Structures are given as C-alpha cells and as structure tokens.
Amino acid sequence: SMPYNNYQRLDVIYAYMQDIANRFPNTVRLVTAANSFQGRPIRYLRISTTNFEDHSKPVIFIDGGIHSREWISPPTVTWAIRKLTEDVTEPDLLNNYDWILLPVVNPDGYEFTFTNTRFWRKTRSTNTHSSSSICPGVDGNRNYDFAWNTVGTSNSPCSDIYAGDRPFSEVETQVVRDILQEHLARIALYITVHSYGSMILYPWGHDGSLSHNGLGLHTVGVAMANAIDALSLPNFPRYVVGNSALVLNYRAAGAAEDYAHSIGVPLAYTYELPGLSWGNQGFHLDPRYIEQVCRETWAGFVVGARRAAELF
Ligand code: 0X9
Ligand code: ZN
C-alpha cells in the first residue's frame, strides 16, 4: 500500500518499508545500514522465508536511487517489495531466494531533487580540503573501486561525473559495497536500477571488453529484456541489451555493476528504465507511467532471478 500515481518523498518510502516489516515479521527484516552524509538513514529490506542465519539460498540484490534525479528507479524497487510480501503472484521467487532490496542508495540527493534542484545526480557530500565545499557531491556510479577514476570520470568536484577523492569515499557506496561483500558467496544476481534509455547493460563498462561470463550475462540479459518488452506499451522503446560501454557509446569506470562483477557476482547489471523523452526531461517520466514501468520491470527481475538460480 504505497501510491504509484506519483513520485514519493523519502519519508513515504521509508514509512512503507517500516509498515511492510511490521506486517510481515516472519519474512522481512528492516535494516538501517548507515546514515548518509547529511545524516539520513540508508535503509534496505531483507526478505527471506527461512531464518536470517540460514545461508542456503541464492541472494538477489537490487538497488535503486543512486542517481537521485532518476525518479522512476526507487518505485521499481518498492514494487519488488510489494510483489514479495503484500501481493505474491510468483511464490517460487519468495521461497527459493533471499532478497535484499535497497530503494534509495542516495537519500540526500533524492530529497534535494524535491526541495531544490530537480535534476541533481550526485550525493551531497562536501570535504574541507577541496573545492567540494563550493560544489558538493560525488557521482556514486563513479565511486566504486573498479578501475577507479581511469575513464569517463572527472577530478573536478563541480562535475556531474566527479569520481570522489578516493574509491568508496561516499558512505552511500560503502553501504552497497558492504552488502555485496557480506553476501558475496550467495549473490546470484545484482541489479542496479537507473534511468533512462530502456537498456540492460553488463560489464565491462570501463573498456567495452567482455568478461569470462559474457555469454551468461548476455543470455540472461536478453531473457530479462524479452520479459519486459512482452509487457511494454506501444509507445515505449524496445529494450537494448549489451555491454554497457558499447550500448551507451561511452566508457565509464567505477560503476556499481562492474565492481560487483569484479569481486565475483556472476550476473551484474545496470537497468536503464524508460525515459520517453530527450535531455533532462527523460529523467522525469510522466507519473502516469510509474505503475506500468514497475509492472514490466518486475517481469525482468522475475526472469533474471529464475535464470540466475539455474546458472548459480
Ligand atoms: O553513466 C552511468 O552511470 C549510467 N548511466 S546514467 O545515465 N543512469 O548515469 C550507466 C552506467 C553503465 N555502467 C558502466 N559504465 N559500467
Ligand atoms: Zn543513473
């Protein structure tokens, strides 16, 4: 029970997560991983039908909202929470996997896009020994420790692709890193949800080369895209699947799915959800489409989880 007819502030998302944790105490655990730079909690749900000390099932980890202006991302993650608790139509997904669902990696940026600057992308951190006090924020998706700051990044705190002054300088990316590390042996599938472009992207995004698991990444990527397209609308673009540097036409180091794959997650993807527009307006998908995108994106998660378990 969270409205999908409009974009929601952080307090509504967190109230929903708390409500779900209260109503489903046997399967849901609410975790506050850390506080953001400005002191907001960074929260995720663990969903499991067995006790949380049981480590026998594969884990599916999905995060959203690292780029704060990409407003369509967090609702697709809360929709997944809904489909695993309030409205279970695929019980195998609940029974056969443990889930970690983190709707808003970057709560400071997310709130700033409502209160100040709609198209803010980065965190809101500052540090005293650089011009970052004039220009706050690090691009979370350039801050992971994979080929950090080598390509498609900036050393300038005023840039939207500022990599930060070191890998994992941001508490927000540290939270994702720590989840990946804690559950690494069991994470069968990691998806980080962005917008926009109707794409499913996989490693390696810093140089356009394919990983040892390139065939698996492509096969499961295509299966997920087909499932999404099957539920799509005529005015939505078909999904494109491929290596992120090749599909996007730019290389960028320090991104989340590359980091996850580099430490051993076999299937790691960036989803770029539909934008249906050009320029910054693509980050503001008409709210009439929120529920549609949530439904079709869930179909992608479903197929991804099932295929990941077969390969795991
Ligand atoms: O550039 C990004 O961070 C992502 N696109 S976005 O428009 N949402 O900012 C794409 C990241 C793709 N992955 C890698 N470059 N590894
Ligand atoms: Zn993004």
TrEMBL record:
One function term, GO molecular function aspect: zinc ion binding
Cofactor field: Zn(2+)
Protein's name in the database: Carboxypeptidase
CC per GO annotation: extracellular space
Organism whose genome encodes this protein: Helicoverpa armigera (Cotton bollworm)
An example Gene Ontology biological process: proteolysis
Active site per the UniProt annotation: 272
Family, per entry: Belongs to the peptidase M14 family.
UniProt KW keywords: Carboxypeptidase, Disulfide bond, Hydrolase, Metal-binding, Metalloprotease, Protease, Signal, Zinc
Full protein: residues contained: 115 to 426 of 428
Domain Peptidase M14 positions: 6-308
